[in-house]
Amino acid sequence: MNILVTPRSFGKNNPELFDRLKAAGLNVIRNETGGILDEKSMIELIAPCEGVIIGVDPLNAKVLDAAKNLVAISKYGVGLDNIDLALCRERGIRVSRTVGANSNAVADYALALMLAVARKVCLIDKRCHEKDWSKITGIDLYGKTLGIIGLGAIGKCVARRANGFSMKILGFDPCWDDDFCTQMNVERADIDRICREADFISLHCLLNDETANLINERRIGMMKKNAIIINTARAGLIDGKALLGALERKAIYGAGLDVFGQEPPENRAWYELDNLVMGSHCSSSTLGATEMMGNMAVTNLLNDLNLPE
After folding, report:
1. What is the mean pLDDT of residues 97-125?
2. Is the distance from CB of 74 to CB of 51 less than 8 angstroms?
3. Confidence band (pLDDT; 50, 70, 90) for 52?
4. Residue 117: CA count within 13 A, CB half-sphere
């Protein structure tokens, strides 16, 4: 039985994950490119496979049509927007996720981006490497207002951390958890209010038809001049053109982005900003998180393929 493994960090620091797959009698086809697979590469590699451990590579209708024998998809992560779920349901393909495995790692990175943007850490570091010891003034995080859009596992972890900075927390989530929000002092707010009042806005929701371009030109226009946008979720939650323009005009203070519509972005304008901290889609890339995600992904796949360990 053949399976495809696409995530770049899968097994990088714990190669025993591949031993688990092989011990279950699976022939493993690996992503050897060092990057995210495109549609053409996915079609070629997935064709003989019954299962796949997938990262953010495309599993759209064209790719799934080429995977005639596919019965199980194990998502290495939680976001499913790169998978045609309707077609999977139609074909009876089982889809699993590694829920909770990377929540703390992503939350840590979101806070790191907030601090890096607010205190201009990357710019200061760059200047210091050039022996420029001039003072650069940032803005405060402690005691400010944080808006969290999406209070699932990761959003809740961000709220816990924000309490340590005595932040006022505004939250939005269609599935409101009263007990948690009372305990963590999270005040319920709609997205427009968050955009108007928050000093920091952190996105932690799934990408779907309802959330696409959630942060658009209208909402960016509502934001404070010192507002900072953080996105460790999905690029499609933000209108990239509108955000780029706002950063160029200094209409908002800055942004920390771990996700882009094209990775890496081709538009050189992104690289010329001094109020943007860029990430390479690495918010979940810690030793602990990748090990937990890897083991959960393998367990989920073996279960869905009805294979014993």
Report:
1. 96
2. yes
3. very high
4. 30
The one catalytic residue among 44, 281, 291, 309: 281
Question: pTM value?
Answer: 0.87
Catalytic residue selected from 39, 197, 248, 263: 263
- 98 to 19, 75, 179: CA distances (angstroms): 19, 7, 24
Q: State how far the Cα of 169 lies from the Cα of 188, in Å rounded to an integer.
A: 9
Q: 138 near 120, Cβ under 8 Å?
A: yes
The first and second tokens of residue 292, run together, are: 């937990």
Closest-CA residue to 240 (of 260, 226, 255): 260
217 is a catalytic site residue: no
The closest of 239, 227, 167 to 195, measured between CA atoms, is 227
Name the catalytic one among 234, 248, 266, 268.
234
Contact 286, 105 (CB under 8 A): yes
Closest CA to 233 of 252, 259, 200, 254: 259
Contacts of 175 (CB under 8 A, 6+ apart): none
Our answer to whether residue 263 is catalytic in this structure is yes
* Element spanning 214, H or E: none
Q: Does residue 309 register a pLDDT over 90?
A: no
Contact 154, 99 (CB under 8 A): no
Pick from 228, 113, 107: which is nearest to 163 by CA?
A: 107
Q: How far apart are CA 120 and CA 139, in angstroms?
A: 9
Q: Is 196 a catalytic residue?
A: no
